[in-house]
Amino acid sequence: MTRFRLSMTTALLTCQAFLTGPLLAQEAGTIYLEEITLEGRADPAGPVRSADPETLTGSKTAALVTEIPQSVSVISAQDLKTANANKLDGALAFSAGVLGQPYGYDSDTNWIFIRGFAATATGSYQDGLPNFAYGFGGFYVDPFMVERIEVLKGPSSALYGGSNPGGLVNYASKTPTGEPGTDLEVGADEHGRVWASADHQGRFSDVTDYRILGKLERVDGNGAFDAGFHGVGSGSMRRELSGGGSLTLGLDLMKIDETHVGSSWLPYEGTVVAAPFGFISREFNTGEPKHDRYERDQIAARLVWNRPIGDWEFTNTARAAWSKVEEDSVYAYGYSGFSTTPQDAVGTMSRLVFDHSTEAKTLLNDARLERELDVAGTNHRLMLGVDVKYFAMDQVQSSAVGTPLSFANPVYGAAQPAASPYIDQKMSQTQVGFYVQDQIRFGDGWIGTGNLRYDRVKTDVGTNYAAWGGPAPGYDRTDGEFSWRVGLAKELPGGLTAYASASTYFNPEIKADATGTEFPPETGRQFEGGLKWAPNDDLLVTLSAYDLKREDITQSVTAGTYNQLGEVRSRGIELEAQGKLGHGLALRGALTLMDVEIRDDANAALIGKTPYSIPEKTASLQVSWTPEPMPDLTLTGAVRWVGDSWADNENTLKVKGRTLLDLGATYRFGEDWEANLAVENVTDEDYVASCQTAYWCYYGAGRTASLSLRKSF
């Protein structure tokens, strides 16, 4: 709920004079209002109207970003529109400490790293509830459905339970705002992506608003054999309740049907460095047209209910979701003989057939009570809560050795062998967490934040009926974990806030080795300190430094046998700025300097090295300009730099960094028309986004120019 100010200066009222007092000056029947300042509250998950908005991410109770004792980034729906964004992970380039699309463009998954740790599976949230994923079971979120993206950096188990050490990304769903109207949009890009969308809001009554969203999209490019289809739809309703409070209900639907292997799964030699035959084309597809299928069906029902109960405010957030993903693919696994180097002059590649069918279900509920009270000269904002997560998955994974494919002379169409199942298994995880938070204001601008949480996690892994050698028994395990966070902030003159915090996390393991050994959750901690500067509602600058440790990482030692001894430390400095500078100028920028180091490993030779795929230095800057003589035109330019990374944990194979340029223009005309041009990678830079060992490297997207046309009424 962002505070907003409404100023009415020299407003003219030619009606009868019914207002009196010092605010009014009267002259010849005309009433002049002096400046009036009104304080109000807006939805903390709604449209972003300030550089320092209130948010629920990082507190679960509405708090300004500057009041949260961890680094937080907020990306608005308007930012997504300006970029003509087709995926959410591509919208994170101007958030410090965050790497989106580490494996290049992937049409069906939002891949994200935060502070050097993968956040895709256990760091993805929607409306404050986890979008937990395991294997290929999970839930996809489309940019059109999102009102804002919020990134909380660092361990967050004290609020959210089992989660990723680097932090989390929360997607706030679009819901009714109470502002009736309709937005229509059509757009296309140079690679064949075409879309049309509609966003309509209205009122059923004075106390009931609704919102209907829909988008149809043809996806293409990035080396895909054929165009695919994405369709999303959403309906939501918000009702103000008698006695205070409100109820919001929503239903979201998604359908994806595409071919998508594209320009990925390519060897290091031939992409990062030249092979004897040269470089593999960015558009080269290692797949097989007749064996390339990806289908996703997904449905989610969501609820937010809040109401006062005496001196307390009660809030309940819930979501029930189901998804079914079926995929057939063929992809490269090095060169002939599964070698990392070419074995002939035409670059013949080995290929694997991989098919899976995965069904996932989740039930989520977070209920909390909060109130304010004054005790001995201190103000307390107290919150008590309990949340429940249930995730269940039924999966079948199959594989086979596919036919070879030559890069120099690719011949598609060969019949592929039938894939044999190696996983046929059900699993589930239930987490129940009890938590308390107290935000304490005292003295002259001091803010203390304390969190404590206890979780009980039950993991059931069923029998694997397709295991080689016969059915392999599963296991069930129950873990109990405490997590905590303490933070202290001091509000200083000029909109400056200094803060420091310490926090812990845990993340349950879902594996056991061939001997039946089960593993307790991995754990870790973080220390963070920094400065947040918000001199006004239009600008926020955050400087943070952190030391983060991930411990008890389970690692494979031999086939089917694991050890739990891994440790990785990430420490770094982040600088991020976002806001308006005046004279029509606005900026978004980020600088990240990390040191990510393996501290303990089953392979002693890796100690002191940097994990593969992680660039330790990144920087970005986007500047927008709306010329004062032409207020309907906005020009945008950006530069994105990602430093070097490694293709192997031994740090012998380097992947060069890249510098990419973007341009854009938005023009508003006529009766609420808007045209938006966005060009990413203007110079069509050819680069490898990252590698996972010498077998698999991923090209980044080439130049993509897109144009959209919007009409509001």
Task: Provide a compact summary of the structure.
With 713 residues, the protein is mostly beta strands. Helices cover 1% and strands 58% of the residues.
State the main characteristics.
58% strand; Ferric Hydroxamate Uptake Protein, Chain A, domain 1; 2 domains; 22-stranded antiparallel beta barrel; 1% helix; five-stranded mixed beta sheet; 713 residues; Maltoporin, Chain A; mainly beta; globular
What does it look like?
The protein has a 22-stranded antiparallel barrel. A five-stranded mixed beta sheet has the order 8-14-15-12-13. The chain is built from two helices and 42 strands. The longest helix is centred in the N-terminal third of the chain and has 6 residues, at 77-82. The chain starts with a strand and ends with a strand. It has two domains: 3-172, Ferric Hydroxamate Uptake Protein, Chain A, domain 1 (Beta Complex); 173-469 and 481-712, Maltoporin, Chain A (Beta Barrel), CATH 2.40.170. With 713 residues, the chain is an all-beta fold. The protein is 1% helix and 58% strand.
Euclidean distance between termini CA atoms? 26 Å
Report the average pLDDT across residues.
90
CATH class of the largest domain: Mainly Beta
Q: Please give the largest β-sheet.
A: 22 strands, antiparallel, barrel
In terms of per-residue confidence, which ranges show pLDDT below 50 for 5 or more consecutive residues?
1-41
CATH topology of the largest domain, which one? Maltoporin, Chain A
> Quaternary status of these chains?
single chain
Indicate the structural class: mainly beta
Which outline best applies? globular
- How many distinct helices? 2
Strand content: over 45%
Q: In total, how many domains does the architecture comprise? A: 2
Residues in helix, %: under 10%
Number of strands: 42
Full CATH superfamily name of the largest domain: TonB-dependent receptor, beta-barrel domain
Q: What would you report as the Rg, rounded to the nearest angstrom?
A: 26 Å
CATH architecture of the largest domain: Beta Barrel
